[in-house]
Amino acid sequence: MSLERAQNTCNLHGAKTVFAVIVIFMGLIVVSLTFSWLDILRINRFVTDLLKESSDSSQDDCFNCFPMDLRSMISPDRLCDGGKVDVLLLVLSSVTNRLARDAIRSTWGSLCNSLNSSIRLAFVIGNNLNKTYNSFLLEESNEFHDIIQADFRDTYANLTYKTMIGLKWSVTHCSSVKYVMKTDDDMFVNTELLPILLQAAPNRNFMGGSCWGPSSPHRQTSSKWHASLRQYRKPLYPPMCSGTGYLLSRDVVGNIVNVSRDVPFFHLEDVYVAMCVNKFAVSPVSLNGFSIMIGSFTPCAYRNSVITSHQLSPETLKKYWADSRTCPLSLLRPEQLFKTSRVV
Ligand SMILES: *[C@@H]1O[C@H](CO)[C@@H](O)[C@H](O)[C@H]1NC(C)=O
Ligand SMILES: *[C@@H]1O[C@H](CO)[C@@H](O)[C@H](O)[C@H]1NC(C)=O
Ligand SMILES: *[C@@H]1O[C@H](CO)[C@@H](O)[C@H](O)[C@H]1NC(C)=O
Ligand SMILES: *[C@@H]1O[C@H](CO)[C@@H](O)[C@H](O)[C@H]1NC(C)=O
Questions:
Q1: A Gene Ontology CC term for this entry (predicted)?
Q2: Atom 13 of ligand 3 has which residue's CA nearest to it?
Q3: Which end of the chain has fewer beta carbons closer than 10 Å to its terminal beta carbon, N or C?
């Protein structure tokens, strides 16, 4: 082969390469105009999640995968003894939230746990790594007898354990209660109206609160309620009620505890409960007065129509409670308070 021919081939190669580079470059420009860089990252994550997901055991294929045999640390065993108990309030709290618990005890909680009250209230708490705090909690329990503590790490990601431990506790220690209500320690709950409202509620197959139909999971990682495809594969959650406050009839509580063994752990407790409830064909209903926000305050609203209100600091709660005592209690009939709307 002559030197000249070799150079020609080389030039031809060079031209092809340059052409290919230009094509790729223009292709990249088109792609980058179509998708932003963030989109590409998102698609990339979607695909990785999907790949990870398919290598995991499937979400539906789960047997005995959510065991709740966590060690009990504190249990107010006699809480539901004596008297007629209509509703048990499970208030999710944490070891360090003593001020919130005290504010509840001195406001809406003060109408619970006496023998002449039909409401029982217990705070549900996990295990704090700081042993000092745990010993404070034991002292608090000895004083108020209203604390359920179990041995799981007390973190936001473990909230589902709190709810499920509370529900399981109610099955074993409060078995004749008619209803269980799950709520949080930054809530106002109208314990004056609740027993009246419940007189009109169904006593079987019932779940109610601030509820909605099928909804999309929050896929953006910045969300407090973020759920990756790996954690939840389907496009929609089942109908659900906000974790700020939902009521369950006793049979539903028993069924949730029973089916939970075969429903894999999911970190958002209200979604998890909805996933369980969805297994036995109970549809949640929305109830008037169950607010997931703080809303504007008037003494009469808080006394006579608001059933739940969210995100109250201990100081605000005490102030609202005191102010709402200045408005007289209306004599409302159960049917006037128990107003439902279907969500599905
Ligand atoms: C229930 O008993 C407590 C004391 O145990 C008392 O302070 C409260 O007023 C009683 N409530 C009613 C409605 O009788
Ligand atoms: C545990 O909490 C106590 C009380 O707040 C604090 O003094 C102590 O330093 C904490 N211990 C650890 C190991 O964080
Ligand atoms: C949840 O609790 C379990 C049991 O204590 C613990 O192993 C796990 O690390 C906790 N998860 C988180 C995210 O804190
Ligand atoms: C849950 O399971 C237990 C044990 O199998 C059973 O005794 C109970 O009746 C079940 N509860 C409900 C509500 O189905």
A1: Golgi membrane
A2: 157
A3: N
